[in-house]
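tool_log.txt
---
The assistant was asked to compare two proteins side by side. It first ran the structure predictor on the initial sequence, then on the second. Raw inputs and outputs are pasted verbatim so the downstream comparison step can read them without reformatting.
(1)
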Amino acid sequence: MKIKLAELFPSCAIVVTADQAMWTTPLCDEEEKLIETTVQKRQQEFRAGRHAAHQALDQLSAPWQPLLRDEKRQPLWPTGFVGSISHCRGECVAVCAKAAELASLGIDVEPLEPLPKGVDQYIHTADDHATMQADNTLPERLIFSAKESLYKCFYPLIGEHMGFQSVSLNIDAENMSFDFIPSATSTIPFPAELKFHGRFMTSKSHLYTGCYLTGN
């Protein structure tokens, strides 16, 4: 059964999965200039992500503009819109929404396989490790992917790097959702006036996580 990625987000958000043509179809000149010196693999990933994002924005009736990037290589979305892009091994997804409806959002896609050996010690807090040990049905990359989408969601609002040890996750396996708790030493100014929502789902080959922020 085909999964419905739109269910990661409320109906006001548009999720687009890049089709095969999007990986190789050139973008506008301004966007192509951003990847002119990169390797072919990176060019294809960038094109797929931008094409998918443009399609999502078009469905939201956003004014067309090149999707450039800031000094930290984050996409610059049209005024009044928020979005997120993720890709891995031939899979690329983008999600966009109107800023008046969602304060921010983040999406991540990962292969449905374990992390490289030893990497989890840099990703998982002690609480995360306990969570994964307590339920062997959870996808092995879930903590990594959920934190990736969480960081993408918060970065546009706080503008600073968040290490993987900055938060621990609460996983609700039954409802395929997650929340987070800042670590005791974290100084990240998470906006208290916004409510966090996180969800995950899997296909036969990939793990998808998505999160978004709404007003309390």
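(2)
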Amino acid sequence: MKRRKIVVAVMLLLIVNLLMPIGTVAAAPATPIQESPANGATDLPTSVAVRWMLSRPGEVYRVQVATNPQMTALVVDATVRDATGYSLYYVAQKNTTYYWRVNASVRRQTSAWSPVWSFTTTNKSASAAPTLVSPENGAGVFPASEGITLVWNAVQGAESYDFQLANEASFSAAFIQWYAYVGTSAHVTGLEESYTSTIYWRVRSRNPGGTGPWSEVRTFTIDPFR
């Protein structure tokens, strides 16, 4: 009788082990939610990046970009880790409509593809170089502590401007740099950071077509002790 009970117990244990799952299968992640550019957006720069929302830490994304809505003429088919965006800086061409989608994977489970969104890049060309107005070339001496106001002429078609101040005409180590500045004059402080009394400056324009050429280079002189 005792032996029969042992046999029954062993059989029950085997049945329980067979019924227990070998491992827990992770649920498929949610379909990523696209953020930008907005579906159908137009006049975008060729440096555009596609972005989506993070839904679960540890997800790996697959992003595809194509020139047709069927997603067969791919220009990008990339895996993205530790990020929720992908830049098309070296891919996108001007005046072109692109279509894109993204999915997510985690623990060998993959979500459905997101909807296919589209955007169109600009057909604009980069705008021209600005003309510098003031200070005059070689002007000075200005007290470094008071800063200086840089002025340049507006460029047709420009949406913003970049400007740099450096200690050398090569601008290899500009100590003040502003990008996508809106306006045609800027009061600049922090001149005390310069290690020379002669400062070089230049400006360029930008729009969705790209950045234009740099302006001429001018100089002005500061007194770092005032």
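---
observation on (2): The longest helix spans residues 2-19. The chain has two domains: 34-121, 132-223.
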